[in-house]
Amino acid sequence: MSKASSRSFIPLEFELLSTERQLSRAQEFELGMGTRRTVRQFSSRQVPRQLIESALRVASRAPSGANQQPWRFVVVLDPEKKRQIRVAAEAEERDNYERRFPQEWLDALETLGTDWHKEFLEIAPCLIVVFRVDYGIDDEDKAKQRKIKHYYVQESVGIACGFLIAALHWMGLATLTHTPSPMGFLSQVLDRPPNEKPYLLIPVGFPANDAKVPNIAKKSLNEIAVFVE
Ligand code: IYR
Fold it and tell me: Does any domain span residue 17?
């Protein structure tokens, strides 16, 4: 028998926009998102907490496998925790840049001008550390603690991060998608349980007054899309 009893449907809330309004909203969003850049030089100016909370609520609207929402966002504002994260990230990254990265990888990073120094981890007022939640824990029966399989975790968390980064940009904040590697140290520093694995570290704030970004471009629509008609 199907589990019809656990199903419940409600009418879709859907605002039908005029084509004119659709075009104008599309244009506004495209223009707005068109200026999004990854920023590596931050100012220490604080970010209103309400903005971070709003962006996280937007991220939480992302679709996910079986609606399991397999993400945890850890918002790090504490200077001492930020310092610990910087120290650990720099230790790993120093090894990467000086030993572990093959030349091919170093060549691919050349235009970005990155190196192992990660002072932004202390300077940015806020670090959002995104964890993927690989499995849930059913602790209804405290003794058993059964694992609940999560589906499409990588895809789901990636989409949520996309929503988050878009929301933060839209509200006038700068972000960096940082992936120190390996990033297991984030679990220790932030005291996360074994079912949560670090996925992405997003420093958030305002750019430094003299922030510079690499002179690189995005691919054009022709290069990224194919219409089959
Ligand atoms: N995680 C390193 C290296 C790095 C890798 C890629 I792929 C980038 O797009 C940028 C950096 C670092 O943060 O420096």
Answer: no
